[in-house]
Amino acid sequence: MAEGDAILDYLEETIAEDATGSHIHYQHEVLTASWCGERQLWTLQVRRKDSGEIVCMSCNFLWMCQGYYRHDRGYTPEFKGMDDFK
């Protein structure tokens, strides 16, 4: 497993090499993502974390690759003796 700094360095390098930085919306939280097959379009409802403003965005390609992780509450696995763990 890589250290956080190494992962961040890799991401920054990859974004710079591929010139994808202008397509990334930082500090935005996706609330909903709906696909319309007829229009071939994603419609997103997004909250700007800096202002709390809710905005609507649309795109024909949406790359969602962060997996199951829930940033609003994290992940705590259940294990035997969990109640005694400090």
Distinctive features:
86 residues, alpha+beta, three-stranded antiparallel sheet, 3 strands, 27% strand, extended
Secondary-structure map:
Elements: H1 4-18, E1 28-36, E2 41-48, E3 54-59
Antiparallel strand pairs: 1-2, 2-3
**Number of helices in the DSSP assignment:** 1
Unreliable stretches, pLDDT < 50, 5 or more residues? none
User: Could you give the order of the helices and strands?
Assistant: HEEE
Largest sheet: 3 strands, antiparallel
Question: Could you write a compact summary of the structure shown?
Answer:
It is built from 1 helix and 3 strands, in the order αβββ.
What would you note in describing this structure?
Strand 2 (41-48) and strand 3 (54-59) form a beta hairpin. This protein is 17% helix and 27% strand. The chain has one helix at residues 4-18; strands at residues 28-36, 41-48, 54-59. The longest helix is centred in the first third of the chain and has 15 residues, at 4-18. The two termini are 25 Å apart. The mean pLDDT is 89.
